[in-house]
Write a structure and sequence with these properties.
Elements (H helix, E strand, L loop, with lengths): L2 H20 L4 H28 L12
Helix pairs in contact: 1-2
């Protein structure tokens, strides 16, 4: 699977976890969902960092070049 699709999937999962945090019925449910938000955020960031390291389309400041 392409790296951009992996990042996109992880970002979608993070978004769903944020929504679960916002609409939680209890504090415990909100805390659990926020842990998933953090985990998905770390995964997204790690994958983006990996893409930036291997991509010749990223400049030294991390910006995508076209």
């Amino acid at each position: 699977m392409n790296s951009i699709f992996k990042v996109s999937y992880a970002l979608q999962r993070q978004q769903r976890a944020v929504e679960r945090t916002l609409y939680a019925r209890s504090a415990e449910e909100s805390m659990l969902a926020s842990k998933w938000v953090d985990a998905w955020h770390r995964l997204v960031q790690a994958r983006l960092d990996k893409m930036a390291e291997t991509s010749r389309y990223v400049d030294s400041r991390g910006r995508l070049l076209h």
